[in-house]
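Saturday, quiet lab. Running sequence design on the structure tokens for the scaffold JK sent over.
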């Protein structure tokens, strides 16, 4: 009976993996390698690729800068309204991406938004691409880092403070080094999430060729123009980049 139970679970997992494998194989064999290379070597797609890599990297760094302090606070301190704040931090995760982009667009039509744009223009700019990616990626990074700090014992910090360290020193010299693999994983998740972000980028930053076009919007532009082969080629590139990030996360987790 016990073996049958595990067999059923294994079959469910295998069916799910086979479903994904069939889809990926069908996508990979839809067009020829030469056609994929021609698409990826085009001027527009090279620009979108470079912009995607640059904006995703910036977004990942910015996501960590907010995720580390926020998740540390939520993990180590209990305060009135803690549960409400914890739920609010997940709002970008559960909101439809298009709604996030619309909220950004409307915010920058307000007086405060206009004042911000006098310093740094965001709407329909590269900075807007980063902001649209960051709004959602940061929420995933916070959730990931929260799990890291929840699993790290606070005892080493307490010991460090009894030996004369301040809370800042204990965090910097004790906790953050121990959390380094988790920080890499959180940053990688933010990077991968940014790579696939479409809705907020399209609504808030647009999809202008050679300006704000990133890989997800390249797929959308290709499909809108009926260029299915181009959409497939860019999709394969995004799949490859995502797999690289996932493998890096797994390897880092095993070494931690």
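Result came back. Writing it out in full:
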């Amino acid at each position: 009976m016990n073996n049958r139970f595990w067999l059923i679970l294994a079959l469910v997992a295998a069916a799910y993996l086979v479903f994904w494998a069939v889809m990926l194989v069908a996508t990979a064999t839809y067009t020829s390698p030469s056609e994929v290379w021609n698409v990826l070597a085009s001027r527009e797609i090279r620009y979108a690729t470079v912009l995607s890599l640059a904006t995703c990297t910036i977004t990942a760094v910015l996501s960590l800068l907010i995720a580390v302090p926020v998740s540390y606070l939520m993990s180590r301190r209990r305060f009135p309204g803690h549960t409400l704040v914890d739920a609010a931090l997940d709002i970008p995760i559960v909101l439809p991406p298009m709604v996030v982009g619309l909220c950004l667009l409307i915010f920058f039509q307000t007086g405060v938004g206009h004042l911000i744009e006098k310093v740094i223009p965001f709407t329909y700019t590269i900075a807007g691409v980063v902001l649209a990616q960051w709004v959602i990626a940061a929420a995933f990074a916070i959730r990931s880092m929260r799990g890291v700090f929840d699993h790290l014992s606070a005892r080493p910090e307490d010991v460090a403070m009894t030996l004369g360290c301040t809370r800042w020193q204990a965090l910097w010299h004790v906790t953050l080094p121990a959390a380094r693999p988790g920080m890499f994983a959180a940053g990688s998740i933010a990077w991968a999430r940014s790579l696939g972000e479409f809705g907020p980028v399209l609504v808030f930053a647009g999809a202008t060729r050679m300006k704000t076009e990133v890989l997800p919007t390249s797929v959308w532009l290709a499909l809108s123009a009926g260029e299915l082969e181009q959409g497939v080629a860019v999709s394969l590139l995004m799949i490859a980049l995502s797999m690289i990030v996932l493998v890096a996360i797994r390897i880092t987790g095993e070494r931690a």
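Notes for JK: The chain is about 80% helix and 0% strand. The domain at 34-255 is CATH 1.10.3720.10 (MetI-like fold). Ask whether to fix the surface positions before the next round.
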